[in-house]
Amino acid sequence: MIRRYVALIRNAWLVDLQYRASIVLWLLWGVTEPAVALGIWWGIAGDGQVAGYARADFARYFFALMLVNQLTIAWDSWYLDGWIREGELNFRLARPLHPAHEAVAENIAYKARTAGMILVVWLVVSLVWPAVRLPVAPGRWALTAAAVLLAAAMRFFISFTTGLLAFWTTRATAIMELHAGVSLFLSGRLAPLALLPPAVAGVAALSWFPYMLAFPVELLTGAAQGPAVVQGFAGQLVWLGVWIAAYHVTWTRGLRRYGAVGG
Amino acid sequence: MAPAITADGLSKTFKVKVRDPGLKGALQALLKPRYRDVHAVRDVTFAIEPGEIVGFLGPNGAGKTTTLKMLAGLLYPTSGRVAVAGFAPWGGGPAFKRRIALVLGNRQQLVWDLPPEETFQLNRAIYDIAEPDYRERLAELVALLELGDLLDKPVRQLSLGERMKCELAAALLHRPPILFLDEPTLGLDVTAQEAIRRFLTQYRDRHGATVLLTSHYMQDVTALASRVLIINRGRLLYDGALAALVARIARTKRIELVLADGVTAEALAAFGAVKEFRFPNAVLEVPREDAAATSARLLAALPVADLSIEDPPIEDVIRVAFARGVEENE
Predict the structure, then answer these.
(1) Which of A119, A120, A133, B178 is 20 to 30 A (C-alpha) from B318?
(2) DSSP string spanning B270-308?
(3) How far does the CA of residue A70 sit from the closest CA of chain B (Å)?
(4) Would you say residue B330 lies in a domain?
(5) pTM listed for this prediction
(6) ipTM
């Protein structure tokens, strides 16, 4: 299996090299949204604090968010939607390799590429801007790595499962867009969750959204401590289990339904 | 030896949403969807022996591709039994998938932006092909398909024919004993079509592979297949040798003549229906059973330089088979 992953990742990178300009654009996209959010909160915070966040805290939060988002983001619903609607799933189903492995390999390929570049950007910026420096704390980094891995797995299963809805509807990517829209508020992309109105924060706490991004980000910045860490990992494991189950049901039923459109 | 492929009472019914035109129809479909059954394949039974090349013929929407997909394990049959290489394709798992190749003419597995060899390398990993085997098989495929200078060109720069050749190579690197080919020559020029046909015969002869192919080009079928399956509206109309089909369907024979001086179309009309007349060439159509006797009379009565008796063009025979079925012409 390792040899297959190496071959799949290698091909994904070779394709990337054909589209060097688009890599830069994706990188800019990954940087712009948190940079804009940081700019807004920077202005609002002024010399004081918002819900315990001073300017330097916002800076650390959004730099951590930039990195964690790139390490956990999943585009699989868009790929799958195309594979299913245009009949490109056919040859993938005829191969002795579950199509999900190709998707996972793609994930690893682009995450390694983009997150690597963001890490370099962060390191360079932190040389001149002490606010975004993180304390040297190997234990916390190890916990963050575990949380990022779980978040990446969860976001993969969410995206893959939503993409599988293309077996039933032509609007699978619209559902994913809706999910992305909601996640903008509930996962901590626009603001740390501590800043949400209590009612919205209550809704977020019952959903999987905080575990996709906010929890690993707060683990990295040090905002999550003690019981919040245990609760965060428990939440991640539960929601990952739920989404894996949803994936299994959707995949099995979807394949049965597959009309093999086109081809 | 057990057959390589068997289908026994194979059927596939799709449920298709019925939608009336206009906004009202769209709303109705959303609130109260109606479905109708489309019987894509109905009660199809056949067996294909190892090493056979069988042509699968039928008009668009006849059920060819649906059958092929059920045999390859992509579609779950509504009823009936299938065995391919000893496996039930649906749920046959990796062991089954290593024994088949599925090539769909209009859906390609080659990575568009990379040279074909990168897809070959990927398949080497996916199918767990040992390096020496890979080198040997690639060399064979490169020689048979004449891929030499294509391997390092990005796929997007290849012609349609070149892409199909590389597609076949990618699909055959794991050397499957059973090939399902859907329209492998679709859209190719005559030279490329011939190259693909030549390759398929050579591949079968070398490796004893069983091939089931669909095609709209009769030359594919006449050149490759000793046997044809004809399907229309989901039903199998004919299973047997192409020559036997012609004998069964064609009620007439063509007598092709090269005439000497002084023969008119009117004079020929006394012997049969004149299909073509461009002096000195002429084509007569006569009842099948009268062909020999009519030829003898023609030779005796007219100055004939050359004469041959032919079956009607295979395209015409197949068209009749599609339109009227096979049995009623017996």
Answers:
(1) B178
(2) TTSEEEEEETTEEEEEEEGGGHHHHHHHHHHHS-EEEEE
(3) 24
(4) no
(5) 0.82
(6) 0.83
